Amino acid sequence: MHEQTTYNPGLNGVIATETKLSYLDVDAEEIILRGYELIELTKSKHYLDLIQLLLRGELPDDEERSSIEEGLKKEYDLPEDFFSLFSKLPKETHPMDALRTGISALAGYEKNLDERHEVEIDQTSRRLLAKIPNIVANSYHILQEEAVIEPKQKLPYSANFLYMITGNEPTPSEAACFDQSLMVYSEHEMPNSTFAARVIASTNADIYGALTGAVASLKGNLHGGANEAVMHMLIEGETIDGFRRLLYEKLKNKEKIMGFGHRVYMKKMDPRASLMKEALRELSKDRNREDLFEMCEAGEDLMKQEKGLYPNLDYYAAPVYYLLGIPIELYTPIFFAARTLGLCSHVSEQYANNKLFRPRVLYTGPRGLHP
To answer: For this structure, is 97 an active site residue?
Structure first.
């Protein structure tokens, strides 16, 4: 009897696993995290709240939230001489490659590396959440031959992350905006990098290996790297008319335009993009850069009219980061730092109910050849 096989290029629409972590309900325009709607959570909660929600399944109260933050602060620092690793890399090293190297190297210091139980993975996940922002910010500073910016214990988690990047303590509104961006980047069901992490974890590889693979996946401009490409386009366009001309030229040349379209949100705007659009609206007023917001709106209207495509999260997150003073090269590493929470949660879930991923292929090569 022949095996029944179904081929879906890119695994489009294929259900790969069961999860209690998140679900994208496109019809309802909802992103569900452990039963809560993500956009609603961003209105009253913080990134720290999502740590307990995704890792343990419940929102923390005020006391628990404070305990989570204090626990993270104790783990901010990296091992002694760790930064010397980045000084040995070529100056042209992409920040995502530095991040990948840093996470891989950090595995050697992990005392729970061989543990696969939920409690130990929870502890390791929190260590990673504490240390990865430090790696993101300071690997970049070192590659730029700038001074390392040590974490500030007095600052809240997200404010400290932004401070380590820019060297300036953010205002409450800047910190809130950045925190909101981390929330919407934190978890998104089963994108390529999450699938990569779960595939690696399914071999019983350690969580550092799973996250290292996820970094490699997220670097690609069809996944995480899109936010950087968006900002470069906006800078190249310079003005509203210039940006329109640039987009028309790219369409004429049949180039892929980053920041538009999504494998899940094909006929509607990404709800996370809508949230970041409003953040950009307010930030552009504060910075007297309404022109940047208007450029983005003009691009949104043009792509909807010409191609029926809607903005994804990267399209509006990129100019938000730009106005926060974040170097463009760090947009994707920040995406990964935020997504570390979702990745760790998925890896933990994979360990708890594991089945090795081993798909088959549709063979299209020759047969019957002989030497």
So the answer is: no
